[in-house]
Specification:
The structure holds two protein chains of two kinds.
Chain A: E1 7-15, H1 21-30, E2 43-52, E3 55-64, H2 74-78, E4 83-89, H3 93-97, H4 99-110, E5 120-125, H5 137-147, E6 154-157, H6 166-187
Parallel strand pairs in A: 1-3, 1-4, 4-5, 5-6
Antiparallel strand pairs in A: 2-3
Chain B: H1 11-22, H2 28-41, H3 43-78, H4 86-131, H5 140-151, H6 159-163, H7 169-175, H8 177-187, H9 190-196, H10 201-209, H11 211-220, H12 225-235, H13 238-244, H14 249-259, H15 263-273, H16 295-311, H17 321-337, H18 344-368, H19 371-375, H20 380-396, H21 398-406, H22 412-420, H23 431-444, H24 448-465, H25 470-479, H26 489-498, H27 503-526
Classes of the chains: A alpha/beta, B mainly alpha.
Protein name (chain B): Rab-GAP TBC domain-containing protein
Organism (chain B): Thraustotheca clavata
Region (Disordered) (chain B): 1-29, 58-79
Chain lengths: 207, 527
Amino acid sequence: MAHRKKVLLKVIILGDSGVGKTSLMNQYVNQKFSNQYKATIGADFLTKEITIDEKLVTMQIWDTAGQERFQSLGVAFYRGADACVLVYDITNPISFEKLDSWRDEFLAQAGPRDPENFPFIVLGNKVDQENERRVPTQKIELWCKAKNAQQPMSFFETSAKEATGVEEAFQTIAKIALQKGQDDDIFVPAATIDLSGAATKSSGGCC
Amino acid sequence: MEQTPLPHSAPASITNETDVCTSPPPGSTSVWVQRMEKVKNSAVAAKKQLAPQLQQLKDKISSKATSAATTGREKLRNTSMPEGLQPAFVKAREGMSILKSKLSNSSIQVQLQAERFQAMGLKLVSEMMLDSQMIVFVDEEALTHATVFLEKYRHITSPLLVKGENCSPGMICWDTPFILYNILTYLGSVQTVAQCTQLNLSTRRHIHAERHIWRYCVRYGELSPQFRIGFWSHVAKVDSFRLSSELDYETYLQMSLSKGDWTEAIKTDVTRTYGRVAPHRRSSNDWTVSIDTDEELQHQLSSILHALAGKFPDVGYCQGMDYISAHILEHVKAADRKFGDHEPVKRAAATQVQVETTFWILVALFESYGLRQMFSPGLQRLHLHCYQFRCLFQAALPELYDHFEAEHVMVEMYIVGWFQTLFLYLNALPKETLDSMWDIFTFERNWKIMFRVALAMLKLSEQHLIGKSIDEMMVFLNTFGDDPTILTKSKLLPVAFSLKVTNTMLKQLERDHTKGVTRRRSVSTQK
C-alpha cells in the first residue's frame, strides 16, 4: 500500500427513511447539523480526506434514499463499495428490524467478492433522544453477534445532532475497510493484483 | 390526448420556409395593398362597431349571472340550512363574488384587448406590405417555429372578403387566420389566446384549429402566475378526472387514514418537506436558517398525500410525491391569494378547496403523465427514463458521455433526483425556468421537455464538466455554482428545444428497454 499516494474508500450509508443518514454524513464531513433537510432522492456523496496510520485516505461517503422501493436503484450506487454503514433510529424499532433486509439487499446488489467478511458497521442514531429510546443496546449487540459469531460487526450509538460517536464510527469503518483491503492485497498473489478490486483504488476512482 | 402531427418536424424544411416568407409571391401584392386601403379607411368605423357588440356581450353575461345568483340565493333562503352546509354556503357566496369581479374585469379586458389588436393588426399588415417582411422576432428560434405554421395560412383569404363590403376590418382580421395568428404569435401570451377564443365563433374556430398557436405561446410566451393553476388544470383535463371519479377526495382520504399503511412514512417526510436545506447542496451559508415549520401547511400536505395513497393503493406513498404535491399546493395558494386575505371561516373553506384542487391536479398527473408508474414499487418508469436518457445522452453528446463513463458518473446519480421530482430537487433551478418547464410538460402531455432540459443542462455545462473528477462533477450537477446563468429560462430553454427528442425516439427506446428487461429476466430464471 505504501507506494500508493492516495487511497479511495467508497462507503455506503443505508437505513430506513428518516433515521438520519444525511445528518450523519453532514455531521461527519462538515461538522454541521440541520433539522431542515429534505428527504434524499436517489443518492449522492460527499468526500472527506483523513489520515489513518499515516496514510492519506479519501473517503467517498454515499448517502442514499431510505425508502425501500429505491433499493432497485442500488446496483448503480453500490458498485465498487468498500464498506457499508447500516443506520437505524433508536427511537424506532421498525428501522432496527429492517437492518437485515438492508444488509441482504446490499450484498445481493453490490456483489462483493467476500460477502461473509465484507466490512459493515451499525449505527444506532438519535441517542440525544434517550428518553424516547425503544431499541435497547443489548438488542443490537445480539444482532451483531448473530450475523457473525467470530467477528461480530462493530456498532456505535450516535447522535448526528450532538456529534456523539460520529467521528469514532467513521474512523472505525475506515480502518476496518482499509484493513480488509490490505488483507485482500496480501491474499491475492502479487502478480495478479487487481487494481479495480473491491478495496483500493487510485484517485479518480475506478470500480 | 394524441398530439397533432408536427409539420415542421423536419429541420431541413425550415430554411426553405423562411426564404419563402421574406419574399412574397408576385401578384399578391396588389391584392394586399387594396385590402390594406380598405382596412385603413374603416378603422375608426370598426372601433365604433365593436364597442356596442362588446357592451352587449357584457350586459348579457352580467344579467345572466345576476339572475343565476338570485335563483341561488332564493333557493338557499327557502331551505333551512344544516350545520354541515355552512362552509359550502360561505364558499358559494365567495365564489359568486369572485365570478362577478372576474366577469366585469374580463369584459373590460376583452374590449381593451380588441382595440389593441385592431391597432396592432393594422400596423402589422401595413408593415408587412411596406417591407415585404414578416414580423421581427427577437428570438430566431421562435421565429422559425412561428413562420413554419403561419406559412400554411398565408394564402387563405377571408371568406368575408368575398362576400362583400358590409364587414368591418376588425371582422376581417378575426376571420383571416393568417392575420389572426400573426397577431397572436406577436403577443405570444396564452392568456390572450384563451381570451380571443371567447371573442366570436370564427376566432374560436381558427384558434382551436391550430394547436401550434397554443404550443408556440406556451413555449415562447409568458404565463402570468395567477393563471398557471387554471392552465395546468385545463390542459391536464383535471375536471374530467374529478367528474368521472368513483369517490370523492374526502372518501379517499378517510380510506387511507383508516388503513394507516403510509401514515408513518408520510409523517416522516412531511415534517421535512418544508425544510429548506437540500441534502447535498454543499454550500456553507444555508446552515443557520431558522425553523418556520407551518404545521397547518404540513397537515394539508399530509392529507393530500394520504388521499393520493387512497386513490392509488398500488402506489401508496413514495418519496418525490411530497416535493411535487407541496409545489402544486404552493401554486394553488399563490393563485388564490390575489383575492385577498380571507376571514377565518372563509379561510377554512378556501383551504379545503385549495387542498382538493391540488389533489385532483395530482390525480391527472398520475393518470396521464406517467407519474403513477414513476412512483409505484419497482419504479419501472424511472428505470425506463434513466435508460432512455442514457441513450439520448450518448447520441447527443458523445464526448461528454465518454467522460462521464470514464469517471463512473452514472445517469442515475443525477437523473433520479431531477426526474423523480420533476426537477424540484434541483434547488439551483430558477423558479421561472421551472414554471415554464411545467407549463410545457402539462401542455405537451409527454416527457420530451424533461429529457430536453436535462440534456440541455449537460450540454451547457460541458466546459465545466470535461476533465473534472467525479467529485467535482457531482458538485457541479447539484449546484451549477460556477455558472448559474446556464439555468436561466432564456439560456436553457432555447438549447433544450434545439435538441432533437421525439416521441418516436422515446417509443423506440422504450421497446428496446422492455426487450432488454425481458431478456435479463429470462436469463436470470434460467440460472
